[in-house]
Amino acid sequence: MERTQERKRQLAEMAIDSLNVEHQKELAELEFIYEKKKLIANKEWEIQKINDSKERVALSLRQDILYQERKELEYKIQKDNYIKTLPYRFILQIGPEFYYYHGTIQDGFHLDGFNSISWGLSASFGYRFDIKEIRLTDLGTVTGVHLRIGKHNNETANCFLNDELIDPPLCLDDYNEFFEIEAGVLLRQWFRLSTGVGKQFIHLSNENIEWNYYCGTIGFIIPIWNLDLTVQGTIIYGNDINDPVIRADASLMYRFGFGKFSSKPKID
């Protein structure tokens, strides 16, 4: 009887041990599956982190590019609006001009008061280049041609003869005309640099004397509404001129304009 019970007990323990082995095997398989899924999840998370970092970098670069494109577009629109406020691309100026004859540089200046003042007509035609930078003081660079038609009175003519001739004759005529044509630039439309050629006529009682010469002008322009007040100095030299002479000029010219700028911003 006791042996039978002991046998049953041993059989029961063997069944329990068998169940424990199976259970442990299942637990081990479950743990392996769990660890595998954990490794896969960690790998996917790391990959996601890398992808997120790449996306953030790409997004940041794209934002920088969009910001730069927006600033460039704003600048183009601002420049376009600014160019529209400019007067005109082509400029025509015409008006009276007064000349003060100073004399030669070598012998010093003649200061004869109003006797050295002559008058004439001045005209300019210019083309304005595109504006590169937006500044309130930037009106662009203008290149053009400048024409003068004037006359010297007998006082100025005699000073001129005395400066250029060893034994000068006497001029009694108050209308001694001269013509000058120059080409040059207006920087920011207020500072003028130009050079060209001219011809001076002096009328004597029995003959006319002619001088061909070169001339160069440097001056400043002050715009007042549609008027331009110009103050400049001109040097006359070369060709038939023995000693270079200096002349001060002042003019008040009316400014005409035509040909508006037509700059449109490009949107890529």
Q: Can you describe what's shown?
A:
The chain is an alpha+beta fold. It folds into 2 domains: 1-85; 89-258, Porin (Beta Barrel), CATH 2.40.160. The protein is 35% helix and 39% strand. The chain has 2 helices and 8 strands. An 8-stranded antiparallel beta barrel has the order 1-2-3-4-5-6-7-8. The chain is rod-shaped and about 170 Å long. Mean pLDDT is 79; it is low at 264-268.
What are the main properties of this structure?
alpha+beta, 268 residues, eight-stranded antiparallel β-barrel, 2 helices, 8 strands, 39% strand, disordered C terminus, Porin
What's the arrangement of secondary structure elements?
Blueprint (H helix, E strand, L loop, with lengths): L1 H84 L4 E15 L12 E12 L13 E11 L1 H11 L11 E12 L3 E13 L4 E17 L2 E11 L7 E14 L10
Antiparallel strand pairs: 1-2, 1-8, 2-3, 3-4, 4-5, 5-6, 6-7, 7-8
